[in-house]
Design goal:
- The protein has helices spanning about 10-20, 40-50, 70-90, 125-140, 160-170, 185-205, 220-235, 265-270, 280-295; strands at about 1-5, 25-30, 55, 95-100, 145-150, 150, 170-175, 180, 185, 210, 220, 245.
- By secondary structure, the protein is of the alpha/beta class.
- The protein has a domain at about 1-160 and about 180-215 and about 265-275: NAD(P)-binding Rossmann-like Domain (Rossmann fold, 3-Layer(aba) Sandwich).
- The chain has a six-stranded parallel sheet with strand order 2-1-3-4-5-10, with helices on both faces.
- Strand 3, helix 3 and strand 4 form a beta-alpha-beta unit.
- Helix 5 (about 160-170) packs across helix 7 (about 220-235).
- The longest helix has 22 residues, at about 70-90.
- The relative contact order is 0.16.
- The structure holds NADP nicotinamide-adenine-dinucleotide phosphate.
- NADP nicotinamide-adenine-dinucleotide phosphate binds next to helix 1, helix 3 and strand 4.
């Protein structure tokens, strides 16, 4: 199957290239200079030229705090960019697999969010991603939205790499302990998308609509940091484990408000045989890759 991938240099984009490389699929992967999804003509021309069987959108404006000041660009990428891809896909008659976020929710739930639960983003990033989901649903007959959360990998910038860097620079760190979510390894998310591509190729069908994909164990940012420090130390990436203090979101103000609780239910994908991200094991594997890279 021919797959067109956008955002190939991001965490998901790079992991998706890794997993497709050992599959039988043919991949056309683009970064933002090869394919700027905000440019409707460029998107239409690329899709018409490549004639993919499916489009995987890993491109997004992901700077959650910057989005508060940079609304126009956040919406240009996360809403208009998705709409451009959706129109081109629909013109060719092919489906889009798109990735969205837990930040479409307000975080007031007391049980894992289901895909059908009411959305109420707390910031511009979440609102722009929700607008992208809605644009896709309005334009495309066949689409999948995978909402994910707290993405980490050996690539790019993420919480794991930030904690390892700060852990090596400082003796003590304060980390927010009243926001709960599910860390997700981008490599597992990439495999889940590939599983959906395989299933679509085999059956020409998928459970179209919104699904949730994230890690199997909820934690707080503080709990995640503690695990990173422990595993980082074990892997030889941290000389000493810094003193870690749990603080509240109020003590760590950020331009964008985050949901307090954004645990996602992955039940609809599990019913299709797609297992959630085993993020603790994935974290070990990421540590090994970072260690090998550091040598
Ligand atoms: N990271 C998280 O914690 C998290 C949490 C929940 C959901 N998500 C969602 O998961 C998906 C993947 O996230 P990620 O962490 O892999 O993101 P990432 O590492 O920030 O990568 C995003 C990529 O999007 C590309 N991009 C930005 N503007 C573009 C444009 N106009 N045209 C084409 N490409 C453009 C960038 O490409 P260039 O580098 O080539 O400019 C970048 O490589 C996104 O949909 C994100 O919203 C992420």
């Amino acid at each position: 199957m021919r797959i067109l991938l956008t955002g190939k240099n991001g965490q998901l984009g790079r992991c998706f290239q890794d997993v497709v490389a050992v599959s039988a699929h043919e991949l056309f992967a683009c970064n933002s200079s090869e394919l700027d999804i905000t440019n409707a003509d460029q998107v239409a021309a690329m899709v018409a030229e490549v004639k993919p069987d499916v489009i995987v959108n890993a491109a997004a404006y992901t700077a959650v705090d910057n989005a508060e000041q940079d609304q126009a660009q956040a919406y240009a990428v996360n809403e208009q960019g998705v709409a451009n891809l959706a129109k081109a896909a629909e013109a060719l008659g092919v489906p889009v697999i798109h990735v969205s976020t837990d930040y479409v929710f307000d975080g007031q739930a007391v049980a894992p969010y289901k895909p059908s639960d009411e959305t109420a983003p707390q910031g511009v990033y979440g609102a722009s991603k929700l607008a992208g989901e809605q644009a896709l649903a309005a334009i495309c007959t066949r689409y999948i939205v995978l909402r994910t959360a707290w993405v980490f990998s050996e690539y790019g910038n993420n919480f794991v790499k930030t904690m390892l860097r700060l852990g090596n620079e400082r003796e003590a760190l304060n980390v927010v302990a009243d926001q709960y979510g599910c860390p997700t390894y981008a490599g597992d998310l990439a495999k889940a998308i590939l599983q959906l591509c395989d299933r679509y190729q085999a059956t020409q069908e998928l459970a179209w609509g919104i699904h949730h994909y994230c890690g199997d164990l909820p934690t707080s940012w503080h709990g995640f940091a503690r695990t990173i420090f422990f595993k980082g130390h074990q892997a030889g990436l941290l000389e000493n484990i810094p003193q870690l203090t749990a603080i509240s979101s109020e003590q760590y103000p950020t331009p964008a408000k985050r949901p307090e609780y954004s645990v996602l239910s992955t039940a609809t994908l599990e019913a299709l045989g797609v297992e959630p991200s085993g993020w603790l094991q994935a974290l070990d594997a990421v540590m090994s890759k970072l260690k090998a890279h550091a040598k």
